[in-house]
Design a protein that fits this description.
By secondary structure, the protein is of the alpha+beta class. The protein is 23% helix and 29% strand. It folds into three domains: 85-364, 3-Layer(aba) Sandwich (Beta-lactamase); 381-459, Lipocalin, CATH 2.40.128.50; 467-549, Lipocalin, CATH 2.40.128. It contains 13 helices and 29 strands. A hairpin with a 2-residue loop joins strand 26 (514-517) and strand 27 (520-526). Helix 6 crosses helix 7. The model is unreliable at 1-21 (pLDDT under 50).
């Protein structure tokens, strides 16, 4: 198996050309080094990955590893078709921007001018908000999961997406205030393109993007039942250590749903450098980063993220859908682009792409900066310990735990170092504590980080409710927005939230009236008399989804 793949790769390996910027050259990489990155998938008993590399638009590597189909013993090849998940978003953004350049719409138009099914929230949501994930719209797939039908469990269509979006009575936040990743904005763009162009989104993409760029292996999965030649089946690990199919059996697309090859992806990303399709204004709009209402510039642009890797500028996007994993990254200053798509849920396409990039770009990397800021102050352990504990993120009411560690504070996976008595920083994240303190002696703080300026964190005590306390929260809760009912009850001394099928989700106390479970936060709401009358369900992409207590 390895010999077949390696020979295929060598046959497709085009003589290396070099980048001459600053006297440095991109390293010549032996195929065996690339094989080493994907060694885990080099066999006939696992799914695998495809990888492609180009330099100044010319392909220098096309290779594949593992199996496209385990049932029929079909190997992955450089021409195997995968789904790259949210890497697809840049194609949707491209379609929207092309229509704007055609004069058919403005990116600052109110989206309700084209999709009046969306509720009027009293504030304008623009097309640009959709492009940049700053609309405040809840992620429809997350709401569908709360309803009991997560993606991959039902053949969702754009009709379902619009139905869910039209039922939401509130936004996560006012448009433009924060960045919050939401597939809804990109599915809505697919609908928008159809309504404005008079063509299906798939046909518009084919005529205006895929064919002009020579992307002969690329199309949208707008009908998951359609036969697609050379398509890889996606897989996930089973508890027993084997493999099971995990396919995106749904017709929603625009957020994901692209069918393509690693090589075709490189054709598109090279055009984002040259502008051969669309011209300079197209390239400019695709790379225009979002600006929040606060003035903060965020990394997200037109389905692209603009950032740095080891000191080098990188324009990229990752993707994950069902069992597929993908990453497409372009290093503009070095002229290098890499795409990796896997049909294994443990493929770690982003990590493997970084390993490939390291092989080619090692001579360009800046020295790694240390963890500790160059300028800082020393804070006593007792002061650090006094700031540690649980805090409530007042943006979406999740619990945030801060710990004192080795002269710094740890918030989640981030170390924050003291640069002043009340200010802690690391990279683009800062935490500034107030002067006034709460009842437990701890001050509130303001968190500034990418996509979220001025988020207030308020100290909260840990909650240890008795069974009698928990009885206040028991009852039946219904949401019209998710069209679902849940029952909160005490079962064998454990507080659980049960769905319509009687499946229970154990809830753990976080702070008074708030519980956590499965990455979700549940806040029970009281009326003026202190009686529990409602419940809020919050998670990463859905904030404060209200359930009324009906029993």
């Amino acid at each position: 198996m390895k010999t077949w793949i390696t020979l295929s790769a060598l046959l497709l390996l085009i003589p290396m050309v070099t980048s001459e910027g600053g006297g440095q050259t991109v390293a010549e990489v032996d195929i065996s080094a690339i094989d080493g990155v994907f060694e885990e998938f080099d066999g006939t008993r696992t799914p695998g990955c495809g990888v492609a590399v180009s330099l100044h638009g010319s392909p220098i590597l096309l290779s594949a590893y593992g199996m496209a189909n385990l049932e029929h013993d079909i190997p992955n090849t450089p021409e195997t078709v995968f789904e790259p998940g949210s890497v697809s978003k840049q194609f949707t953004a491209a379609a929207t921007i092309l229509l704007a350049l055609d004069g058919k719409l403005s990116l600052d138009d109110d989206i309700r001018d084209y999709i009046p099914e969306l509720p009027d929230y009293g504030e304008v949501i623009t097309i640009r908000h959709l492009l940049h994930h700053t609309s405040g719209l809840r992620d429809w797939g997350s709401v569908a999961a709360i309803e009991g039908w997560p993606r991959t469990r039902r053949a969702h269509t754009h009709m379902h997406m619009l139905d869910i979006a039209s039922r939401q009575m509130a936004l996560n936040y006012p448009p433009g205030k924060y960045y919050s990743y939401t597939n809804t904005g990109y599915n809505l763009q697919a609908v928008l393109v159809e309504r404005v162009s008079g063509m299906s989104f798939a046909e518009f993409s084919r005529v205006r993007i895929f064919e002009p760029l020579g992307m002969t292996r690329t199309e949208w999965r707008d009908d998951f039942n359609r036969i697609v030649k050379d398509r890889a089946t996606a897989y996930t690990r089973t508890q027993e250590g084997g493999w099971a199919q995990l396919m995106p059996f749904e017709n929603v697309h625009g957020n994901g749903g692209l069918l393509t090859t690693p090589g075709d992806l490189l054709r598109f990303t090279h055009n984002l450098k040259t502008g051969e399709l669309g011209g300079p204004r197209f390239v400019e709009e695709m790379h225009r980063q979002s600006v929040l209402n606060s003035g903060q510039v965020h990394a997200y642009a037109g389905g692209l993220q603009v950032g740095t890797y080891r000191g080098l500028l990188v324009v990229e996007h990752g993707g994950s859908t069902a069992g597929y994993r993908a990453q497409l990254s372009r290093f503009p200053d070095q002229g290098l682009a890499i795409s990796v798509i896997c049909n294994a849920s443990n493929g770690n396409a982003g990590g493997r792409l970084r390993e490939v990039a390291d092989l080619y770009l090692g001579d360009f990397f800046a020295e790694e900066a240390g963890d500790t800021p160059e300028t800082g102050v020393e804070i006593s352990p007792s002061r650090l310990q006094a700031l540690a504990g649980g805090y409530r993120d007042m943006r979406r009411e999740a619990m945030v735990r801060i710990a004192a560690v080795d002269g710094a504070l740890r918030m989640g996976g981030t170390l924050l170092f003291p640069v002043a008595e009340n200010r802690f920083e690391n990279g683009g994240t800062s935490l500034v504590f107030d002067e006034e303190v709460f009842a437990d002696g701890r001050p509130a703080a303001v968190l500034n980080t990418s996509g979220a300026d001025g988020v207030r964190l308020e100290p909260v005590p840990d909650s240890r409710p008795t069974e009698a306390d928990l009885a206040e929260f028991t009852g039946t809760y219904h949401s019209d927005e998710a069209e679902v009912t849940y029952v909160a009850e005490i079962e064998n001394g454990t507080f659980v939230l049960k769905d319509r099928w009687g499946r229970g989700r154990p809830l753990q106390p976080l702070y008074p009236d708030a519980f956590g479970g499965g990455g979700n936060t549940f806040i029970f709401r009281r009326d003026s008399s202190g009686r529990v009358v409602a419940m809020s369900w919050s998670q990463g992409r859905v904030w404060d989804l209200r359930f009324q207590k009906i029993d």
